[in-house]
Amino acid sequence: DAGSRLFDAMSARYRRHLLVALAEHNPRGDRDLDPLTAVATRGPSDDALHTEIVHHHLPKLDEMGYVEWDRVTGTIRNGPNWDEVAPLVRSIRHHGDELPDGWL
Question: How does pLDDT run across 18-27, given as a tens digit for each residue?
Fold first, then answer.
């Protein structure tokens, strides 16, 4: 159901980063505005993290319908179920300074 899907999406730090980055700039294709780059600037930047995001987090968000990820072009945009997650992502964006350290 939608509640379980939302909880699962938000349970991982890097999925939260990706969703917030996507909310800030949609569609994402420009390398400077790429969610993968945004995640790297908020946390450790290494090949293992990139691999985890590309092989685990992005496919999961794509499967949930929160994002549409074109693996060929690298473009990430809002998916068909974006409206489920959008209110929570907006709250995180506007109140991120109130969240516990390391949450975002």
Answer: 898 888 776 6
- Cα dihedral 12, 16, 19, 22 in deg (nearest 10): -130
* Chain center to CA of 64: 12
- Work out the angle at residue 24's Cα, subtended by the Cα atoms of residues 22 and 26, and round it to the nearest 5 degrees: 55
Which residue type, as a one-letter code, is found at position 13? R
The backbone torsions φ and ψ at residue 75, rounded to the nearest 5 degrees and listed phi first, read -75, 135
- DSSP letters, 64-76, are HTSEEE-TTT--E
Tokens in use for 24? 């800030």
**Is it the case that residue 14 has pLDDT exceeding 90?**
no
d(CA 89, CA 5): 14
Integer Cα distance of 50 and 1 in angstroms: 29
